[in-house]
Specification:
The chain has 780 residues and is mainly β. It has 8 helices and 48 strands.
């Protein structure tokens, strides 16, 4: 190795004194070829023969590598006859396999037929590697020893293109000295990483210990680990950073999630930061082996969200993300803080009704046991009813975690078998426990033919021990039937026979069917005696599907139907069962006629895009109530247009009870696009309870204006139409920089007060700018 360094140091001298070989391209290639700007010369270096070429340029498959000088050492001396280079036999596969861990692009180059006999390679800079017009690698010098697989790079600048959160980003690695190991690992003790597009980066992550380990996965070819880190903004502001592993996790979320500060009405001064790190080497390997995951394809990450809430204290949310595709995915989280202040969220617990420490443990996992078979696990436990609503309001509104359960499911052909055991670990909850419940479903299958027509059969069986648990009535509603806590064994058996008949006119089909159900309860709602029920109904549906058009041009679809069904058998015990599942205990009986139509209309360059469904049902004496009436009229649809002075879109979802003369629920949203850089939306919502008393009625107006390519300003306000005035309002400004997204927002909510927040996130972790769906604009 020392001799090689001396040879490299003497490169200018050797170039002038070496024995000249014929003036030709020493290397030619099919996938790669070497061009040169100067002569190629040779000299003996011990037992090897070396070639020096000036201005080498290797080109192939849209890629190009160029340098000022190159030295190539051959293990065996080639011979020259009549100007033709006769190469010695290629190295064996063992030597070729030393390159399998090298970076892909370098491996492709060195494994070409014309370089396979090169034992060692030195390139003098500037060395540049291009893919098309994009330069992805630059270095001052590079040396590779193909015998032992080691090498080094001086003054490297390497661009790594990664896909994070659905978008591609280029990370720039700048290192004074890189060492390449035989397994392909790249190491550096002095490197910088940034996504900045500037020649002088806005920020850099500086690391004293960088490792880039090849994974063998073409989607994520590198596993990056950095220790002894700090982040530098410009030349004056430096912050220390903990060890970092990976730039993004399996969900595309960044390792460094950004910083947020503000003054919130609920919590006072707020400062928060989030951080993820890879823990494969710490304990992930052992856990993955215990869980039966793939030995190579698995992820183990540890997450920390730390938020200082001025009036409440330090909220820590710790989590572990474990996954191996095709084997398991398991998330475990624990959040908590010491809190003795007043609740101000959606579920408020007085200070005297809770302890100092407020904790929430939750865990969700899915474990694949085989084809079509898996096990789901969910656990949630919080110290009082207000933890989720107070400190995790967004998650609480999206999905409130209430139950802990274990659910096993297996699918075999058209059959599904499942077992569910569920309970609650929160003593204040009102839930239905299943300890356990078994469910068997056999989907539609042809069982016979009648007059040449197929008869399809489906059945579902359920058997379970059910227990109703009532929690704290201050926070949980009581069961509506008034039976309170009830335990029973319940068996349900449902059967359906149907026979599709093509009527041969306009695609019209008639589908007669028979439904039969038998249900038994070990005790009634008062737990005095057993209860049984048998139901049978007959129905026929007439339907058809009409369509016309071609993909990417136009499409018109219309699917109307009319269905008549009637309960023909109804045998029930005199005692009433407690309600565990409304779809079982509260099954509607009577005679019904249902009308419905689903339509879709999309035409290229047409005036409208329409998608909607209408459904209406006439009930004759439903549930033996002694009256005939129309059930609520259901409407769901959207219409959009690019034509006219302003492109627009309308969405509508409503339930109209025409018998009572009330709208039970309505939501209408109108979105306008008056300019290319302006979106305006107006939403109206209203809902009533069973007594037709209005629960809410509100209107919301919002707008987003993009006043430069980098700056957005937005605002939103909601008003109650029941006389309560303004419900909530917010206004904010957002700046998309080269490296970071900066956002300032001021919001006010009725009963809570005014809050102001400042957020700073790496740009690759932030939401992208909204993309316009409509192509037409009236303005500019």
């Amino acid at each position: 190795m020392l001799r090689r360094l001396l040879v490299i140091a003497a490169l200018p001298v050797l170039a002038g004194t070496a024995t000249a070989v014929q003036d030709q391209d020493v290397l030619g290639g099919r996938d790669w070829r070497m061009n040169r700007k100067g002569n190629t010369e040779s000299f003996y270096d011990g037992d090897d023969i070396a070639f020096i070429t000036q201005g080498p340029e290797m080109v192939g498959n849209g890629r190009r590598v160029s340098a000022s000088w190159a030295i190539l050492w051959w293990g065996d001396q080639p011979r020259y006859f009549g100007g033709e280079v006769i190469r010695s036999p290629k190295q064996d596969d063992a030597k070729r396999s030393l390159l399998e861990q090298y970076p892909e692009k370098l491996r492709e180059l060195l494994n070409s037929d014309d370089l396979v006999n090169v034992r060692e390679l030195y390139l003098e800079g500037p060395i540049e590697y291009y893919e098309g017009d994009r330069r992805i690698f630059y270095a001052d010098a590079l040396y590779l020893d193909r015998v032992d697989g080691h090498g080094w790079v001086v003054g490297a600048r390497y661009s790594v293109k990664e896909r994070i959160g659905g978008s591609s980003y280029v990370f720039k690695v700048d290192a004074k000295w890189l060492r390449i190991s035989a397994d392909g690992t790249i190491r550096s003790n002095d490197a910088r990483i940034t996504t900045s597009e500037f020649a002088e980066p806005t920020y850099t992550i500086e690391t004293g210990n960088l490792e880039m380990l090849p994974t063998g996965d073409p989607e994520t070819p590198w596993r990056v680990s950095m220790r002894d880190n700090k982040i530098r903004f410009g030349s004056w502001f430096v912050l220390p950073l903990p060890p970092l592993s990976y730039l993004a996790d399996e969900d595309g979320e960044p390792t460094f999630g950004g910083l947020r500060v503000g003054d919130e009405a609920r919590f006072g001064t707020v400062v928060g930061v989030s951080y993820d790190r890879d823990v494969r080497e710490d304990f992930g390997h052992s856990l993955n082996r215990w869980l039966g995951g793939d030995e190579l394809d698995y992820r183990s990450r540890f997450r920390v969200d730390a938020t200082y809430l001025g009036s409440r204290g330090l909220l820590l949310d710790l989590g572990t993300r474990l996954s191996s595709p095709g084997h398991y995915r398991w998330d475990i989280d624990l959040a908590g803080l010491p809190d003795g202040d007043e609740d101000k969220g959606l579920a408020r617990v007085p200070e005297d009704d809770r302890g100092l420490w407020r904790l929430w443990f939750r865990s969700r996992g899915r474990f694949d046991l085989g084809p079509g078979e898996y096990l789901d696990l969910a656990v949630t436990r919080q110290t009082d009813p207000g933890v989720q609503a107070e400190f995790f309001e967004d998650e609480y509104l999206e999905y409130e975690e209430r139950e802990s359960y274990l659910h096993w499911r297996r699918v075999n052909g058209n059959s599904l078998l499942s077992v569910t055991a569920s309970t609650t670990l929160d003593p204040f909850r009102s839930v239905v426990e299943r300890v356990p419940e078994v469910r068997l479903v056999n989907e539609r299958l042809e069982v016979t033919r009648v007059f040449g027509l197929p008869v399809l059969y489906r059945n579902e069986q359920r058997l379970g021990m059910l227990s109703r648990v009532e929690g704290d009535p201050v926070y949980e509603p009581e069961f509506a039937d008034g039976f309170g806590e009830v335990n029973t064994l319940r068996a349900v058996s449902d059967h359906r026979f149907e026979m599709p008949i093509h009527l041969g006119y306009g695609g019209l089909r008639a589908i007669p069917r028979i439904d039969a159900s038998a249900t038994g309860w070990g005790s009634d709602g008062a737990e005095d005696e057993g209860v049984g029920r048998a139901l049978a109904s007959a129905a026929v549906r007439f339907t058809s599907s009409y369509w016309r058009g071609a993909p990417r041009e136009s499409l018109v679809e219309l699917a109307p139907w009319i269905e008549a069904r009637s309960t023909v058998v109804e045998e029930t015990s005199s005692a009433l069962p407690a309600v565990f599942d409304p779809d079982v205990e509260l099954r509607q009986t009577g005679d019904f006629v249902e009308f419905g139509v689903h339509g879709r209309w999309t035409i290229a360059d047409g005036p409208f895009e329409l998608d909607g469904e209408l459904r209406r049902t006439w009930a004759d004496d439903p549930d033996g109530a002694g009256e005939d009436r129309w059930l609520p009229f259901a409407v769901l649809g959207s219409i959009a247009s690019d034509y006219g002075p302003v492109p627009w879109r309308i969405e509508h979802d409503a339930r109209y009870d025409t018998s009572a003369g009330y709208t039970r629920y309505s939501r209408t949203a109108v979105v306008l696009y008056p300019r290319r850089d302006l979106d305006v939306d107006v939403t109206f919502t209203m809902g009533r309870d069973e007594t037709f008393t209005k629960l809410f009625e509100a209107v919301t107006v919002g707008a987003l204006y993009r006043f430069t390519p980098k700056w957005d300003v937005y605002g939103r306000n909601s008003w109650s139409l029941l006389g309560d005035g303004s419900l909530a309002s917010s206004v904010g400004i957002r700046r998309y920089g080269h490296d970071f997204l900066f956002e300032i927002e001021v919001r006010k909510r009725s009963g809570e007060g005014t809050s102001i927040g400042l957020g700073v996130k790496p740009l690759f972790s932030a939401r992208k700018r909204p993309q316009r769906r409509l192509a037409g604009y009236a303005g500019v």
